Amino acid sequence: MNGKFLTLILGSISVVGAIGIPMGDPRFFTNALILESSFITMTVLSLFRIKWIFVPSMIISIMVIIANTVSPKHIEIMTNMFPIGNAFVLIIGGYVLQIILLIFSIKFFKNRKMYH
Predict the structure, then answer these.
(1) Which residue, 13, 56, 105, 106, is most buried by CB atoms nearer than 10 A?
(2) What pTM value is reported for the model?
(3) Of 104, 74, 105, which is closest to residue 89 (Cα–Cα)?
(4) Closest by alpha carbon to 104, among 17, 15, 13?
(5) What rounded mean pLDDT belongs to the chain?
């Protein structure tokens, strides 16, 4: 498996994020837009300079996982599965894809000399 797998994961997170932004709380629209922009930027960067995104991917994925975990509203949505769309976006985009991104960023970071 090569580093372009990270591009696929980052792109997937961007798509899920784009779906989730309109569902989220309008008070956090700016924050969500900044976060979404960072994932889109990392996706594009990963196409050309995969080594540049390992560390930012790890940092941002950890921040997203922590933020979702400490947010009482997010926990409530995910445990009640209501609204169902929001729950899926939070679980898939906020945990599943973030954990995959974190694991593979660490894996590829350890072998970063292979990626020119």
Answers:
(1) 13
(2) 0.93
(3) 74
(4) 13
(5) 94
